[in-house]
Amino acid sequence: MVGGVSTGALLANHALLGTPADDAQLVEMYTQIAKKDVHNERGIFSLAFGADSLSDTAPLRALIAKFITAETLKRVAAAYNDDGRFLFVGTTNIDYGQTWVWNMSLIAKDGDLALYRKVLLASASFPIVFPPVEIEGHLFVDGAARSNLVIPGTMGTQRPNPPLYGPGNLYLIDNGRVTEPPQALVRALGKIAATTISVMMEQSMQTALTRSYFGTKLNGYSFNMVSIPDSVNIGTDVLAFDPVQMRAAFDAGRALAKQDNPWKNIPPNSGDLPSWAFKAMVAPAPANASQ
């Protein structure tokens, strides 16, 4: 099972397929585009007359259409039919205030290219800055507005006992930094909106990592995570799409992938929970502990 949220939804699509050609597409997507290839900022008159976002995402729609073709859907469907591999994408339904997870494998199997592209666009539609995406009468925005991670089997309130698939491994890839260093904020509407939402999503990521850690431990899975090291300059503006910073992030990810074991087995503690809670999850229970 491969899952992704926001830009991670695009990453997940190619990670599921995993051929050298998909790797080459990821290189192009994340190192050879700039801000103009993703969104266009609206003018003051558009905002004054009721625009639903600060930017237009026509370039992003075109980018998704370029990389997600009918042939892509056939390959995703084949991965499901032949190998039993699933692809999931998370979005936020702002009508219901809920996280909606889409089974992209079944959408691909149905051959619904328009819906497939819409879900990817919705998952990456940064709220307020990017317009929401309408799907079957509902409005959707970036999945990270509610949950940065899509983890089948650990999100629900009920879990099978024993776990449905037995002992397993969970690998979480944060294609950013878990915490951002302090930085003075420019007093401009776009900057304030983007940075404020980034702070909210940073907290959302920390919460999601903690929840995922406890969920995997309760299910008997191993927890593994990796993120961009703090020393790598990827900036603090998630909407800058600066080619230099994106290249730095991509190269950092590639360097981590070449290490024997880049994974951490415990998430960083954001301070929401006492440190003993994390230690208790990995420490063996006393022999006389009550069941």
Keywords:
291 residues; alpha/beta; five-stranded mixed sheet; two-stranded antiparallel ribbon; 43% helix; globular; disordered C terminus
Distance between the termini: 32 Å
Mass-distribution shape = globular
Q: Taking all residues together, what is the mean pLDDT?
A: 81
Low-confidence stretches: 155-160, 285-291
* Classification by helices and strands: alpha/beta
| Order of secondary-structure elements | EHHEHEHHEEHHEEEHEHH
Query: What is the gyration radius calculated from CA atoms?
Result: 20 Å
- Give helix % range: 40-55%
Biggest pleated sheet: 5 strands, mixed
Count of helix runs: 10
Number of strand segments: 9
Summary of the model, kept short:
The chain contains ten helices and nine strands. It is α/β, with parallel strands linked by helices and 291 residues long. The strands form three sheets. Strands 1, 4, 5, 6 and 7 form a five-stranded mixed beta sheet that branches. It has a two-stranded antiparallel ribbon with strand order 2-3. Strands 8-9 form a two-stranded parallel sheet.
What does this structure look like?
The strands form three sheets. Strands 1, 4, 5, 6 and 7 form a five-stranded mixed beta sheet that branches. This protein has a two-stranded antiparallel ribbon with strand order 2-3. A two-stranded parallel ribbon has the order 8-9. The longest helix has 31 residues, at 189-219. The protein is an alpha/beta fold and 291 residues long. Helix content is 43%, strand content 14%. Residues 155-160 and 285-291 have low confidence and may be disordered. It contains ten helices and nine strands. Helix 8 links the parallel strand 8 and strand 9. The chain has helices at residues 7-17, 20-31, 44-48, 58-67, 70-83, 104-110, 113-123, 189-219, 243-257, 275-282; strands at 2-5, 40-41, 55-56, 87-93, 98-103, 133-135, 138-142, 169-174, 222-227. Helix 4 (58-67) packs across helix 7.
